[in-house]
Amino acid sequence: MSLRKIDIDAYDEDVLLEGELCEPDPRSPAQVLSDAKQKQAAVRSTLAKGDIPGALVIALDSTPCGPNVEEAKNLTLQTIVSILNSTKSSEINNVLKALSQDAQDTLMKYLYKGMGMPGWGDVSGSVLLGWHEKLTEVAGTGCIVRVMTDRRTV
Predict the structure, then answer these.
(1) Spatial separation of the C-alpha atoms in residues 154 and 152, rounded to whole Å
(2) What's the DSSP call for residue 18?
(3) Measuring CA to CA, which residue among 50, 154, 66, 51 is closest to residue 102?
(4) Potential cystine with 103: which of 80, 94, 99, 152 (Cβ 3.0-4.6 Å)?
(5) CA 40/CA 23 separation, integer angstroms
(6) What percent of the chain is predicted at pLDDT more than 90?
(7) Cβ(80)–Cβ(56) under 8 Å?
(8) What's the whole-model pTM score?
(9) How confident is the model over 61-91, as pLDDT tens digits?
(10) Do residues 86 and 47 make contact, with C-beta atoms less than 8 angstroms apart?
């Protein structure tokens, strides 16, 4: 129940809209979804070769951003979760050390998104928490701070 009858954000000059958080994608939402599906196929083939760091780099490169691409965002989350689920816990540190700082931050965003969607798909809370722990050890708490302060959502 809303106590206000007037949307005060409509009168605020400093209000930040979702479309202003990142550069607008010149592709249509259908093209973004098609690219996400192609990326998912590339990740599957890379995983079949046993190259988990390569699969994560592919999945975390130019993730969908902005409004109207929710389906592509969910597909990317599903792709990343499949990579996380297929990784042995003893290999996680080496995989994380192979990622750039930006890729580590993006992975942390997807970990939080997965934690925020319990019971969705094959998201396992224990797997996500294990990756979160290892990622925090490798990237430090600065990774968490950067993700929490970045207003661009995945």
Answers:
(1) 7
(2) G
(3) 154
(4) 99
(5) 23
(6) 62
(7) yes
(8) 0.84
(9) 989 887 788 899 999 999 999 999 999 999 9
(10) yes
The secondary structure of 131-148 as a DSSP string is HHHHHHHHH-HHHHHHHH
Residue 120's pLDDT is what?
66
Cα angle 91, 97, 100 (rounded to 5 degrees) comes to: 135
**pLDDT for residue 97:** 96
Report the alpha-carbon angle 45-47-53, nearest 5: 125
Q: Return the SS3 of 105.
A: helix
pLDDT, residue 1, reads 54
Q: What single-letter amino acid sits at 77?
A: L
d(C-alpha 63, C-alpha 25), whole Å: 11
Contact predicate 80/60, CB 8 Å: yes
What does the alpha-carbon distance between residue 87 and residue 132 come to, in Å, rounded to a whole number? 14
